[in-house]
């Protein structure tokens, strides 16, 4: 049976703004308070989705969240009508209003961790929504994320959904941004690679000193247990604390993997040789020929990797067995990174082509091509069981483009977040979107 890796890209929400909310994310902090363009951001994301669809890849869409999150503000003591809640929050606690307006759910690599049916004990595709409890503005996402994923992957014969882990520091979980799966073919048993920044209970693991390590070993282990993964099918590796302190807040900022290949920076991990040997051995036992490409620090410094998002790229398998690397425009703008990429594609290795996309609106807030997509490996039967409304087609692309142009503002500043009309605009847009994507009632305003 044929299998696919489907990329479900997050639609950028109508409240896309530069709030500078993500401590440890260099781009997010450095562009704080600038005016954003939600319409351009959403259209840039849609253009990338369409390009992959046109290249023959199966492409899906993941809906944004309702923002501002008035229910979250009410839980923090702001009372009255929706408009009064927003007005009071703007007056008394603007940072909380900004957090409640964040469109960070666009980076759906953080939405969940996904294990394909070939790896799980019960032969179903498993989803665990990420609690994202390191940052308040992201910690409020997982209830809606769970409902949206449940509406997309509703058939319990093929799909299993788990609630987010306990929302405490010991189980900080950032989803697929710290998870990669290696395999010979997408439909065959593979090895799932969990990368953590610290251990909550074992002091033998070093921790970063400047920025927080968002993913814990204990969270990764819990997800592996929930998904019914075997010991032979998992590898746990620690991110280098020194690179976390340089702005590598997730593993997908310093490494990307696909199929039998791991593409990573020389300084990405601790105990790199031991980790690579474990991956090689476990994949060999499953018939796969694991390879790694280590980018030397003397060719691309960690700082260049962070600023260009070289590794926050999409690594895609083509029909001829070669791989395509999808990178942001910032890679071409960085002379050292672009020189490295030119040599990479002519070296005769598995990565044969690089395609560049303009994702400036997302990049300025700290998210590149890899942040914008959740990868789900599906066989033909499972793909047929996915809600067809979320699979991109030329007609759906045209519909979503028109929807964005109809509902999104072309400029948004912090002061605009205090406008109650923005909430009404967002709800009107999302109500229409759920009909377009055939999701049913997934947002609080539709349910309550």
From TrEMBL:
<keyword id="KW-0378">Hydrolase</keyword>
<feature type="active site">
    <location>
        <position position="174"/>
    </location>
</feature>
<feature type="active site">
    <location>
        <position position="250"/>
    </location>
</feature>
<feature type="binding site">
    <location>
        <position position="214"/>
    </location>
    <ligand>
        <name>substrate</name>
    </ligand>
</feature>
<keyword id="KW-0056">Arginine metabolism</keyword>
<comment type="similarity">
    <text>Belongs to the succinylarginine dihydrolase family.</text>
</comment>
<feature type="binding site">
    <location>
        <position position="252"/>
    </location>
    <ligand>
        <name>substrate</name>
    </ligand>
</feature>
<dbReference type="GO" id="GO:0009015">
    <property type="term" value="F:N-succinylarginine dihydrolase activity"/>
</dbReference>
<comment type="subunit">
    <text>Homodimer.</text>
</comment>
<dbReference type="InterPro" id="IPR037031">
    <property type="entry name" value="AstB_sf"/>
</dbReference>
<dbReference type="GO" id="GO:0019544">
    <property type="term" value="P:L-arginine catabolic process to L-glutamate"/>
</dbReference>
<feature type="binding site">
    <location>
        <begin position="137"/>
        <end position="138"/>
    </location>
    <ligand>
        <name>substrate</name>
    </ligand>
</feature>
<comment type="function">
    <text>Catalyzes the hydrolysis of N(2)-succinylarginine into N(2)-succinylornithine, ammonia and CO(2).</text>
</comment>
<protein>
    <recommendedName>
        <fullName>N-succinylarginine dihydrolase</fullName>
        <ecNumber>3.5.3.23</ecNumber>
    </recommendedName>
</protein>
<feature type="binding site">
    <location>
        <position position="110"/>
    </location>
    <ligand>
        <name>substrate</name>
    </ligand>
</feature>
<feature type="binding site">
    <location>
        <begin position="19"/>
        <end position="28"/>
    </location>
    <ligand>
        <name>substrate</name>
    </ligand>
</feature>
<comment type="pathway">
    <text>Amino-acid degradation; L-arginine degradation via AST pathway; L-glutamate and succinate from L-arginine: step 2/5.</text>
</comment>
<dbReference type="GO" id="GO:0019545">
    <property type="term" value="P:L-arginine catabolic process to succinate"/>
</dbReference>
<dbReference type="Pfam" id="PF04996">
    <property type="entry name" value="AstB"/>
</dbReference>
<dbReference type="InterPro" id="IPR007079">
    <property type="entry name" value="SuccinylArg_d-Hdrlase_AstB"/>
</dbReference>
<feature type="active site" description="Nucleophile">
    <location>
        <position position="371"/>
    </location>
</feature>
<feature type="binding site">
    <location>
        <position position="365"/>
    </location>
    <ligand>
        <name>substrate</name>
    </ligand>
</feature>
């Amino acid at each position: 049976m044929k299998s696919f890796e489907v990329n479900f890209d997050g639609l950028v929400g109508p409240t896309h703004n530069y709030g500078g909310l993500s401590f440890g994310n260099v781009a997010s902090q450095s562009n704080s308070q600038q005016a954003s363009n939600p319409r351009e951001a959403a259209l840039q994301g849609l253009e990338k989705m369409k390009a992959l669809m046109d290249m023959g890849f199966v492409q899906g869409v993941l809906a944004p969240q309702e923002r501002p999150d008035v229910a979250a503000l009410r839980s923090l003591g702001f009372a009255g009508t929706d408009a009064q809640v927003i007005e009071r929050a703007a007056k008394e606690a603007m940072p909380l209003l900004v957090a409640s307006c964040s469109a960070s759910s666009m980076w759906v690599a953080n939405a969940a961790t996904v294990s394909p049916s070939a790896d799980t004990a019960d032969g179903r595709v498993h989803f665990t929504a990420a609690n994202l409890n390191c940052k308040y503005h992201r910690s409020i996402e997982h209830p809606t994320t769970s409902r949206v994923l449940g509406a997309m992957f509703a058939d319990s014969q093929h799909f299993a959904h788990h609630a987010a882990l306990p929302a405490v520091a010991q189980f900080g979980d950032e989803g697929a941004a710290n998870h990669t799966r290696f395999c010979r073919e997408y439909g065959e048993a593979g090895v799932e690679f969990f990368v953590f920044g610290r251990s909550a209970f074992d002091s033998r693991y070093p921790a970063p000193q400047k920025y927080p390590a968002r993913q814990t070993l204990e969270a990764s282990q819990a997800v592996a247990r929930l998904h019914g993964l075997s010991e032979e099918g998992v590898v746990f590796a620690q991110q280098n604390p020194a690179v976390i302190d340089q702005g590598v807040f997730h593993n997908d900022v310093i490494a990307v993997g696909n199929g039998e290949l791991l593409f990573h920076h020389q300084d990405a991990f601790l105990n790199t040789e031991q980790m690579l040997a474990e991956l090689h051995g476990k994949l060999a036992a499953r018939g796969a020929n694991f390879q790694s490409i280590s980018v030397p620090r003397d060719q691309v410094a960690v700082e260049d990797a962070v600023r260009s998002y070289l590794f926050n790229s999409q690594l895609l398998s083509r029909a001829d067995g070669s791989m395509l690397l999808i990178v942001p425009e910032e890679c071409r703008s960085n002379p050292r990174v672009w020189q490295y990429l030119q040599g990479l594609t002519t070296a005769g290795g598995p990565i044969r082509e690089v395609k560049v996309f303009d994702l400036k609106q997302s990049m300025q807030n700290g998210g590149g091509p890899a942040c914008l997509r959740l990868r789900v490996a599906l066989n033909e039967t499972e793909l047929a069981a996915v809600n067809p409304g979320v699979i991109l087609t030329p007609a759906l692309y045209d519909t979503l483009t028109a929807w964005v142009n109809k509902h999104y503002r072309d400029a948004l500043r912090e002061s605009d977040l205090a406008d109650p009309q923005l909430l009404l605009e967002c709800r009107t847009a999302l109500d229409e979107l759920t009909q377009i994507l055939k999701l049913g009632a997934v947002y609080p305003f539709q349910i309550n």
